[in-house]
Design a protein that fits this description.
Blueprint (H helix, E strand, L loop, with lengths): L2 H22 L8 H22 L2 E10 L2 E7 L3 H4 L3 H12 L2 H6 L1 E7 L3 E3 L13 H10 L7 E5 L19 E5 L8 E9 L2 E3 L3 E11 L4 E9 L2 E10 L5 E9 L4 E10 L11 E9 L3 E7 L4 H10 L5 E6 L12 E5 L6 H10 L2 E6 L5 H7 L3 E16 L19 E10 L3 E9 L2 E13 L2 E7 L4 H11 L3 H14 L8 E4 L3 E3 L5 E6 L12 E7 L5 E5 L1 E2 L4 E4 L6 E9 L4 E10 L12 H10 L10 H10 L6 E10 L4 H20 L4
Parallel strand pairs: 2-3, 2-5, 5-6, 8-14, 15-16, 15-17, 17-18, 18-23, 25-32
Antiparallel strand pairs: 1-33, 3-4, 7-9, 9-12, 10-11, 10-13, 13-14, 19-20, 19-21, 21-22, 22-23, 24-26, 26-30, 27-28, 27-31, 29-30, 31-32
Helix pairs in contact: 1-2, 2-14, 10-11
Amino acid sequence: MTTATVLLILLSIVIAGGLSFFQYLYKANNKSNLYLLLAFLRFLIIFGVFILLINPIISRKNLEISKPPLAVVVDNSSSITALNAKDKTLELYKKIISNKAIQNKYKVQSFQFDNEFQASEKFDFKGKQTNLDAIGKDLKNIYKNTSYPTVLITDGNQTTGNDYLYSFDSANKVYPLIIGDTTRFMDLKINQLNVNKNVFYKNKFPVETFIQYSGDKSITATFSISQGKTVISKQNITFSPLKKSAVVTLFLPADKIGLQLFKASVTSIEKEKNNYNNIKNFAVEIIDQKTNIAIVSALNHPDIGALKRSIESNLQRKVTVIKPKEINTLQNYNILILYQPDALFKSVFENAKSADVNTFIITGTNTDFSFLNQYQNNFNFKMSGQNEDYLAKLNSQFNLFATDNIGFENFPPLQNTFGTINTTGNIHVLLSSKIRALETNAPLLAFAENKGKRSAFLLGENIWKWRLQSYIDKQSFEKFDLLMDKIIQFLASNSSRKSLVVEHENFYNSGEAIEISAQYFNKNYEFDEKARLAIKVTNTETKQTKNYDLLKGTNSYKVNLDGLPAGNYSFSVNELNSKTSYSSHFKILDFDIEKQFVNPDVERLQQLAKQTSGTSYFPNQIDLLIQSLIENQDYKDIQKEIITKSPLIDWKWLLGLILMLLAIEWFLRKYNGLL
C-alpha cells in the first residue's frame, strides 16, 4: 500500500468522523447511547463508501510448496510389440507411477513418444517411427528453469530425428529403463539399400545394398534380387565374427518401361529370430525419355558448372556445354540456356526461332543488351555501363508452376548492368529485384509464354552463389536443384496450361510422408484461392475407398495420406465447383522400419545415462530404480512465496456490509421516531 493511499484513508477517517459528529452529536440536546450508536453507524457507512472510492490494493503472502516433476516417458512405437515387450513395458510403467513414495516425493507426469512426443497415460504401441530426439527438446520447453529427473522406458532404437544424445539437458538426469531381450541372436539384416528412383530405358542402373551380420560363427549367406518370380541376380557372401558387414553393388538392366518393383533378400541355412529385416522391397521408374539441354556460352564462369550440376541432379536431364560457334544443329537439344548472349549468338537465336526450341536467357555484366533487344521481344533493355547488385523478392502470386520460397530473401545479390527494363510481352514474374532495401519492381527471374513457345529469363549473373547459400541454409542442394528442375520442366513442354495441376510420386515407402499437392487456376490462369479440391483414394486390391479434402497452403492445396497400408492405389482429384478432375495412381511399398530390430540399443542408452549423470536399468532392476529415485537428494520440494494483490472493490461483501449498516441505521431511526 502506497503512502498516498494511507494518507487518503486517514483523511477519510477524519471526514467520516466529522460528518457523523455534525449530523448526530453537534446539535443534539441529549447525547444518549442511541445517538452515539447512530453516529457510529453513520461513520462506518461514510468511511466504507470512501474506502470503495479509494480502492486500495490489498497484498497477501502465501507459502506454496511444490514437488519436483518426474517425467515418465514410454516408447509407444511398434518396435516394442515386435520385441515382445508390450506387457512388460506396461507393467514397469504402472509400478513406477503407482508407487506411493514416488508420488509423495515427485509430481509424476506421463508422456509417450513415437514419431511425436505428447502427454499420455494410455499406450497402444502402434507408432510407425521412433524419434528420441523430440523427447529431450520438448522436455526442455515444458520444464524451463526446473531441475527434474526423467525415466525413459524404451528399447532405444531410433528410426527418425537427430542424434538424441545431444538433445537431452545434461544438467537433468535421465534413467533409461531398457526394454527388450538383450540376448544376442544370429541375425542377417539388409541395413540400407540405395537406388535411383528414376532410370532410363535400355540402360543399367546401380543398386547398392548394405548387409549387416550379428553372430559368433562364420556363415555363408545368399543375396538375391528378384522381380516377381524371376531371380535377376544371385550371389554368395561370407560373414564371420570379424567380418560383420558387406556392401553389394549390382547393375540391373532397365529393360521395361514404367514402374518396376523388385525385392532384395538375404538368407542362410541358419535359423534367425527376425526374418522381416532380411527383405527389402524397392521400386524404380524406368523412363523412355531424356531432356537434352545445351548451355551456350562464350565465357568461362562458375555459373556454368553450377547450372550443369543442378540440372543433372535429375537423371532425366543431360547438359552439354558448348560455345556459340560450335553449334551446327539444334535437333539434338530440347532446351537452350543462353548465357550472357552477345553478337556471337546471332546464328543461335535465328536457328532456335526456326527450330522452335525454348530458351532460358541469363544476362550479366558481359551481355550485349542492344543485341538482345533485336532478338527477343519480351523485354526492352535500356542499360548503362554501370554494374549493380540486385537482391531477390518472391512474387507470391506467381502461378505458372508450384514453387516454395527456398530462402530467396537471404540469397546473395546477383550482378547485372544498371538500367531500365520494360516488359513488352506476356510476362510472369517469379522474382522481382531490389537494390538494397529499394524495390525496383523490375523482374529478376521471369517467364514468357506465347503461342506455345516458352522462355525464361534470369537477369543477373552469379547464380552459383545461390546454390551455395541454399546448401549452407539447408545442408543440401535439394531445394535449389528442385527449383531449377521445375524451370527446365516448364521449358521442356509446349503444351497448353491445365487448370488443375497435381504433383505426386509414383511410389512411396511405408512409414514415410505421403503428400499430394495440387493447384487450380481460373480462366485467367490465376491461382484460385476459393477452389474446393477433394481427393478419392482407392485400394485397387481391396476396393476400399477413402475421401479427403485438400487444404489450402501457400500457392497450393495439399493432402497428407500417411497411414495408408502397403498396396496399389488409384486416385482422382476433383475441383467440386468446376467438376475438373485429375486421375492417376501410386504404390506404397511394404516396409516397416520398426520391425528391423532384434535387440535394444543398450550401448546408446547407457551412453545417454552417463552423459546426464543418470543410471541405466533393466526390467529386473526396477526396484533399484524406484529406490534410487526415492533416495535421490538432488530433487527436493521447492518453497515459493506467492504474493496475491487484489483491489478492495472486488470485495463484494464490503458493499453488502454498507447496505446492511444503512438498513440498521434506517430501522433505528424509524423505530425511535427520528425520521
